[in-house]
Amino acid sequence: MTTSNHRAAGVRRIAVYSGTFDPITLGHEDVIRRAAGLFDELIVAVAVAHHKKTLFTLEQRLAMVAQAFAGQPQVRVLPFEGLMMDFCREQGACAVVRGIRNVTDFDYEAQMAAMNRKLAPGVETVFLLPQAEQQCISSTLVREIAKLGGDVAQMVSAPVVEHLRRATLAA
Questions:
Q1: What is the pLDDT of residues 82-95, one digit of tens each?
Q2: Is 118 a catalytic site residue?
Q3: Catalytic entry in 18, 61, 98, 139
């Protein structure tokens, strides 16, 4: 069923944008805002991330994302674990949104999109690039800069700067 058929049938177009968001960056926020404008509802799926040692707990990461989009009712923030395509089916999503910053991201994400298509043929993958000034930002670099006492104010929102300050003081 094409997108126009979904709209004609009155079906809400739901997309999922997943990540660890440890922490959420301005690049993530940019992709989320633009994706929210393309779909009726955007679910930001915050990964439990058992496989990663995160700086922030799942609850903290969920709270940071929710705080960033508190004024946007079309953005929902939910935790997830397991296969993204299973989560998409559970949520009734027609698309997965992926942010890509560079060719390396694209190579990885193209492989994931092909595999996801095998797992859930009815769920499309949509790639969005963050604004040019945010393409160099990654959560990993933000965490490292913050740990070393650097200024991350141009990479994350003010509330996230405060979360990072507290986390690095506690470490």
A1: 999 999 999 999 99
A2: no
A3: 139
Q: Give catalytic status of residue 52 as yes or no.
A: yes
DSSP the chain: --HHHHHHTT---EEEEEE--TT--HHHHHHHHHHHTTSSEEEEEEE--TTS--SS-HHHHHHHHHHHTTT-TTEEEEEE-S-HHHHHHHHT-SEEEEE--SHHHHHHHHHHHHHHHHH-TT-EEEEEPPPGGGTT--HHHHHHHHHTT---TTTS-HHHHHHHHHHHHH-
Is 147 a catalytic site residue? no
pLDDT band at 7 (very low <50, low <70, confident <90, very high): low
Catalytic residue among 101, 117, 138, 157: 101
Q: What is the pLDDT of residue 52?
A: 80
